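We treat protein structure as text, and this decision shapes the records that our systems exchange. The tokens are whole numbers drawn from a learned vocabulary of local backbone shapes. Below, we set out a record of this kind in full and without editing:
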Amino acid sequence: MWSEISIHTTHEAIEAVSNILHEAGAGGVVIEDSLMLTKEWETPFGEMYSLSPDDYPDEGVYVKAYLPVNSFLGETIEQIKESINNLRLYDIDYSPGTITIAQVNEEDWASSWKQYYKPVAITEHIIIAPTWENYEKKENEIVVELDPGMAFGTGTHPTTKLCIVELEKYIKNNDMVYDVGCGSGVLSVVAAKLGASEIHAFDIDTVAINTTILNSKINKVDEKVLPKINNLLDGITKPTDIIVANILAEVIVRLAKSITPLLKQQGVFIASGIIVQKEQEVKYALEEAGLKIVDSNYDGEWVSIVSKRSE
């Protein structure tokens, strides 16, 4: 038996709340966004499912996670509540932050979410396909097979898609890449398939590192992808061609000063996970750190920012 924890929050807080749930031992995360009801789907991939407005909030999103029902559940839920309340210390709007709890059967949790995760064309050439789907690769396509497991990152979230678009644009053959906060490893695998020869995948979460190892092996790029437990870029000193970070805007702001010395001449920093309301704050921090903004792209309420070391 599993307990479903549903948190009503903002788009801005999706990644922060998801990380809190993963750290609490969640066995999976589902994001129910009312914007999905009005989205126009233009994809030949997979089967489409009817979405009921009754299952979605009028505003914001539901972030749902699954925890085993045991004697520690009450304590774990209290820890989740405390961590969510602490988001205000980082200026993250998580309102209303209400939490509801329901019980679900294990077999329902284990398989039901997979029916909604189908092959998706991220760009004209890059396809993200779950490992349990049979997808026939077409000419000139790059197919990334992904099993997100318990790690955050199916490759289809707008912030991840924005990163993939930028990686396709800026990666050159034999580039070295740092993937900061690698999650499921999807960006590391994409970088390898686009021609990067050495990708260092950093994450503080052991689950993320293990999932990155698995997905790099599934995609036969494990000789290129080098996962490591690491807090952001702490202790990293070797300059690289590209740094990609799909993390919170507040973290990017704090990270900005350490980016410049880690980029080679004309090196590129791709930052995502940024809600549009934080765009100018992030750009200011990057420019203050000696980086030149060269590109910005948008997907709904999210923005990616590309900057370069110019000197």
About this structure: The first strand starts at residue 2 and ends at 9.
